[in-house]
Amino acid sequence: MMTGNPSSEFILSVRKVNKSFPGVKALDDVSLQIRRGVVHGIVGENGAGKSTLMKILSGVYTKDSGSIEFDGKAVETTTPMESLRMGLSIIYQEFSLVNSMTVGENIFLGRFKEAGGMKGTHQKAKELLERIGSSISTRALVSELSTSEKQMVEIAKALSFQSKLIIMDEPSSSLTEEELASLGEIIRQLRGQGISIIYISHKLDEIFEYCDYVTIMRDGHVIDTRPAGELNRRDMVSMMVGRTIENEYPERPHCVGGPLMEVKHLNTRKLTDISFTLNKGEILGFVGLVGAGRTEIVRAIYGADKAKQKEIWIDGESVAITCPQDGKKHGMAFVPEDRKQQGLVLPFSVEANISMADLPKVKTGSFLSRGKERQMAQRQMEELLIKTPSAKTPVVELSGGNQQKCIIGRWLETNPRILILDEPTRGIDVGAKYEIYMLMKKTVEAGGSIILISSELPEVLNMSNRVLTIADGRITGEFDPEKTSAQEIMNMAIG
Amino acid sequence: MNTKIRAKAFLQENLVLVIIVVLAAATALMEPKFLTMANLGNLLNQFGPLSFVALGMTIAIIGGYIDLSVAGIVSLSAVFTISMIDVLGQTGALLAGLLAGALMGLLNALVVVSCGALTQAKALFMTYALSAVYSAAALLYTDGATQHMSHLNSSVTLLRGIGSGRLGFIPVSFLLFFALMAGLHFFLNRTQTGREIQLTGANITATDMAGIPVKRRVAIVYILSGVLSAFGAIVLFSRTTTASPLMGANYETNAILAVVVGGTSLSGGRGSVIRTMLGVMLVTLLSNCLNLLGVSTYIQSVCKGIILIIAIWIDRRRTK
Question: Of B237, B175, B182, B157, whose CA–CA distance to B41 is shortest?
Answer without folding.
Answer: B175
